[in-house]
Amino acid sequence: MVAKSAFLPATLTELSKQYGDVMTIWMGRVPAIVISGYETIRTALVKRAEDFSSRKIQPVAAMAGRDKGVLMAPYGSHWKHQRKFALMTLRDFGFGKRSLEGKITEECNALVQEILSHNGQPFDLKIMMQNAVSNIICSIVFGGRFEYGDPDFLRLIRLLNSVVEAKPSFMDRLEMIHPVFRCLRFIGTSKNDKMTRMFQTLQQFYREQIEKHRVTFDPNDIRDFIDAFLLEQQRAPEEQAWEHFTDKQLQEVLMDLFVAGTETTATTTRWALLYMMLNQTSRKRFIRR
């Protein structure tokens, strides 16, 4: 019944009226605990946040070795350590501050020139917005922006789009329910294998960037996020560096920043532009501000 529901939240709400604020739905052999009601949700996510903050690593993430970083890593002391370092370092390079406006303005100017180059002809804004957003992230983590036609940059955007747009096949969903279905791959094509290869190619791209930084690294001239991480590798006690500041950890954090930041920000900005195109009053108010 749940699988055939047109609107899952409404169906779960109706079921909670019959079975209570805490109920179990079995997805094959995997139990899914559904909580409803303000007090129950507040107890689980606020009062007992430490107990419920982790998340299950999906098969495709495990296959690609994506158990590090921040997005996919299980909640615990390692996750807290990495999140704290990432936030502090990003703030040092202007994230959430007015000092980042210079990089944003530079990229906006490049975006405007790219739009004007079409001379009033129709074009797809999606790729342009992704390029602009990714380049701002590049300026923070790599120390500089790419030209939109740069082969390395085009490869990065293509891989990011492939990861974001990929959807699991029917067989992949069965694998999430029970591992035994991995033995039945011949029945249908698995997109998990394709996604794993995409992740691994992205990881290789980040490894290349890390090695380029390591060759030119100067502890007295920290240029970007990668340099800050390499510096921490040198400064941290050996045991801590081995646990928290490995190259594998760095490449996964880089992947998190791009995967989580590019598509979401670009899509939100495109919707904002569409809204302003259709709403003249809002557009004028936005320009005034």
From TrEMBL:
Keyword Iron attached: yes
GO BP annotations listed: organic acid metabolic process; steroid metabolic process; xenobiotic metabolic process
Top-level taxon of origin: Eukaryota
Region forming the signal peptide: none
GO cellular component terms listed in the entry, alphabetical order: cytoplasm; endoplasmic reticulum membrane
Named cofactor requirement(s): heme
UniProt xrefs under Gene3D superfamilies: Cytochrome P450
Residues forming coiled coils: none
Recorded GO MF terms: heme binding; iron ion binding; oxidoreductase activity, acting on paired donors, with incorporation or reduction of molecular oxygen, reduced flavin or flavoprotein as one donor, and incorporation of one atom of oxygen; steroid hydroxylase activity
Presence of keyword Oxidoreductase: yes
InterPro entries per UniProt: Cyt_P450, Cyt_P450_E_grp-I, Cyt_P450_sf, Cytochrome_P450_fam2
Membrane topology (UniProt): Peripheral membrane protein
Localization terms from the record: Endoplasmic reticulum membrane; Microsome membrane
Keywords: Endoplasmic reticulum, Heme, Iron, Membrane, Metal-binding, Microsome, Monooxygenase, Oxidoreductase
Family: Belongs to the cytochrome P450 family.
Protein name: Cytochrome P450 2J6-like
